[in-house]
Amino acid sequence: MTIDWLVPDERGAVAWPALPDGKKGVLTIGSFDGMHQGHQAVLKRTVELAHELKAISVAVVLDPRPAAAHAYAAAHDGADAPEGFHDPDALMPVQRRLELIESLGVDRTFVVHYTMPFAAVSYVSFLGQMVGKVGMRTLVLGSDAHMGAGKEGDLKAIRNLSLATGVFELDVVDDAGPGMTRIPFDWKPQMPQKPGEPADPLEGMNKSQRRTWSKRNHAHEARVWSSSNIRYLLGNGRVHDAGEALGRPHAVEGVVVRGEQRGHTIGFPTANLGDPVQGYVPVDGVYSGWLVDFGMAPDADAKVAAGATTAEAQEGSSNAGNTGAVSADAHVNHHEDAVTARTPVNRWPAAISIGTKETFSEATGLHERVVEAYACTQEWLELYGHDVRVEFGGYLRPQMKFASADELAGQLAKDAEASRKAADKAVDTAK
């Protein structure tokens, strides 16, 4: 897959590359945050149509997420999100999105740095550029898509434009999946207080009961296959349900840094992810899952080995999930011939803890929220400076304060055993 990183100028104009040899394109557009099953359906249809028409499949990926870019602008007098902007609500970094898009067989991807001038471009102008400059023949969209200034380019408007001009066709994908659910408008992450994966509060309710629940919780309707619902699920510890919507376990990524070394002293050494963690961090709690090791991260080894701060250790590898990104002020485009795909070195079942280490925080005075994973293996692991992915399988229990380190170690042993069993069950189910 060929990638072009494109930066709009101060007027929102983009130097769109033309497709080679006069080829036509089948194109889709979105942020594709999470690459959930709805996104996959749209991209698979794009590739399928491109094969049928002997055309080139093209994905236009918006980064950062439009919602995050607009929120940043609203809080900073209309300014664009700067280079290296960290979006904690993004489900996954752009590099991971590109890896998954490539795995579906997309030929070419344009990554557009989403700016406020670009957001002000009308859908008519944007689609005109796709036809005239890129060579778009067919546009593939999901069933609730919209684009352009003020989101005026809904499916009805785009279809009318297609029929009126006759220069491109619109193909709408039924990407609704299991249908709709309901999400409270003002929900906040809430750690489940009981062990085990939380149940869907709407499960088993009839229409009348669902309406009552929705009114009581000021809920709105949302797709099960949607990034907003997946964030809601993760914010309530329902990582298994989130994985079902994604079509794979939800994951976060980062570089392993030195923590308090507390795990070593009690026999459970953990891999601590340095800030900023890439991907949406679920609510506090202990989870079963997997720790995936990609080996030493670029430029991170020396800093971590030297005992650098988390921010310093992360600095050298902060672009690992954002390869090719350029400053919005530079107005320079960048071309890559392929995704720099990472190959896992190892993958272990893991017990994953998210929280503030309540057992020791009072004594240490450290209350930072951390993500740490204990790999369930007999091997002695030295992962400082390694680029890792933490994948979430299920919710085990809430965070709690233990009376002693021995009591904590006993519970960690139980967590590790539960994680091993969950991993074995997942393997058996996949067979």
TrEMBL record:
Gene3D superfamilies xrefs: HUPs, Riboflavin kinase-like
Region (Disordered): 183-205
Catalytic activity: riboflavin + ATP = FMN + ADP + H(+); FMN + ATP + H(+) = FAD + diphosphate
Pathways per UniProt: Cofactor biosynthesis; FAD biosynthesis; FAD from FMN: step 1/1
UniProt keyword terms in alphabetical order: ATP-binding, FAD, Flavoprotein, FMN, Kinase, Nucleotide-binding, Nucleotidyltransferase, Transferase
A single MF term (Gene Ontology): ATP binding
Pfam families recorded: FAD_syn (PF06574), Flavokinase (PF01687)
InterPro entries noted in UniProt: FAD_synthase (IPR015864), Riboflavin_kinase (IPR023468), Riboflavin_kinase_bac/euk (IPR015865), Riboflavin_kinase_dom_sf (IPR023465), Rossmann-like_a/b/a_fold (IPR014729)
Record keyword Kinase present: yes
GO terms (BP aspect): FAD biosynthetic process; FMN biosynthetic process; riboflavin biosynthetic process
Residues of the Riboflavin kinase domain: 245-424
Family from the record: Belongs to the RibF family.
Protein name stated in the entry: Bifunctional riboflavin kinase/FMN adenylyltransferase
Source organism (scientific name): Pseudoscardovia suis
Lineage, top ranks: Bacteria, Bacillati, Actinomycetota, Actinomycetes, Bifidobacteriales
